[in-house]
Amino acid sequence: MKKILVLVDSISQNKKKLTRFLNANSLNEYRAYLHTFSDLFFEIKTGKVKIKVKTTDLSNFDLVFVRRAGKYVRFMGAITKYLDNKKINFVDPAFREIGMSMDKASSSVRLAIKKIPIPDTYFCFKASILKNRDRIIKGLGFPIIAKAVLSQRNQNIFILKNTTDFKKLLKRSDKEFIFQKFIDIEFEYRLLILGKSVRVLEQKSKRNYKKIKVEYQDINEPSVFLNLDTVCDTTNKIALKAAKTLELDVAGVDLAIEKGTGKRYLIEVNKGPGIVPDTKTSPELKAFSDYLIQKIRLN
């Protein structure tokens, strides 16, 4: 028998009644299952993405019917991308036209599907974080990095070192979070993408993990800009592929090299990267101006 997932923003008597009616009139061709968005759990690993409703992968359904998305509509871009990747039909295709959200959960899904190396990432909505806490801990191990899904430029990043830190996080912030495997960073770079090339390379400061809120060790440290050939071609290709995957012409791509392994991980993609407005201390403004001139000439 076919299976239909009825996905809603919240459970109500009318939605239960609708599901019962569907099952009573299915002519034994399908069975409908009613779930909320808060039942979803995202497992995002490079080249291996799973979105589950509780413990059942969405790919196990034959059809996904979004009855009402409500406040969760911004995440439909990631969900439809996943369903398309798994060749699962859904109602309505118009969700594709909403536009892909640049929140960290949606971006991570898109990057991982394209096999761009990112830290292992889990996501569930805030209402079900404590319910999924053991699942997250088992999958990632301590310490765990928590990032607010709608923050940019390394804001609202926390490190969880034990079980009780989850409650501390929820008391401290009302935001939605993704949870990522901790990467012991040896070097971290910001690559400014303009068009189809890397135009500026900046070496980032070391991070401070002593407190629950993660910040750079010296927030007043002046930016250090490097020659573009300082990093290898592989690093540039990862950054460019990430910007292309997220359909960004202008992006600040943060990449880290792991201590001991030399592995490269994409840490963050900023759609509105900060550009220092001082040509004496930063090459960014000149590079951005040159890029706009190039765009105008091509029009």
- CATH architecture group name of the largest domain: 2-Layer Sandwich
**Poorly predicted parts:** none
Structural class: alpha+beta
The number of distinct β-strands equals 18
CATH superfamily of the largest domain: ATP-grasp fold, B domain
Spatial separation of the terminal alpha carbons = 55 Å
Global geometry: globular
Q: How do the helices and strands follow one another from N- to C-terminus? A: EHEEEEEHEHEHEEHEEEEEEHEEH
Averaged pLDDT: 93
Strand ordering within the main sheet = 5-4-3-8-11-9-10
Indicate the proportion of strand residues: 25-35%
CATH topology of the largest domain: D-amino Acid Aminotransferase, Chain A, domain 1
| Total domain units | 3
Helix content class: 25-40%
Number of helices: 7
CATH class of the largest domain: Alpha Beta
Biggest sheet features: 7 strands, antiparallel
Cα-atom Rg, whole angstroms? 21 Å
InterPro entries: ATP-grasp, ATP-grasp_RimK-type
Pfam family, one: RimK
Organism: Candidatus Woesebacteria bacterium GW2011_GWC2_31_9
GO molecular function: ATP binding; ligase activity, forming carbon-nitrogen bonds; metal ion binding
Plain-language structure description:
- There is one protein chain.
- The protein is an alpha+beta fold and 299 residues long.
- The protein folds into three domains: 2-101, Rossmann fold (3-Layer(aba) Sandwich); 121-181, ATP-grasp fold, A domain (Dna Ligase, domain 1, 2-Layer Sandwich); 185-298, D-amino Acid Aminotransferase, Chain A, domain 1, CATH 3.30.470.
- Helices cover 26% and strands 31% of the residues.
- The chain contains seven helices and 18 strands.
- It has helices at 13-24, 76-85, 104-113, 133-140, 164-172, 233-245, 284-298, and strands at residues 2-8, 30-36, 40-45, 48-53, 56-57, 63-66, 89-91, 121-123, 144-148, 157-160, 177-181, 185-194, 197-203, 207-208, 215-216, 224-226, 250-258, 264-270.
- The strands form four sheets. The protein has a seven-stranded antiparallel β-sheet, with helices on both faces. The protein has a five-stranded antiparallel β-sheet with strand order 16-13-12-17-18, with helices on both faces. Strands 2-1-6-7 form a four-stranded parallel β-sheet, sandwiched between helices.
- Helix 2 (76-85) runs parallel beside helix 3 (104-113).
- Residues 108-297 form the ATP-grasp domain.
- It comes from Candidatus Woesebacteria bacterium GW2011_GWC2_31_9.
- InterPro entries: ATP-grasp (IPR011761), ATP-grasp_RimK-type (IPR013651).
- GO terms for molecular function: ATP binding; ligase activity, forming carbon-nitrogen bonds; metal ion binding.
- Pfam families: RimK.
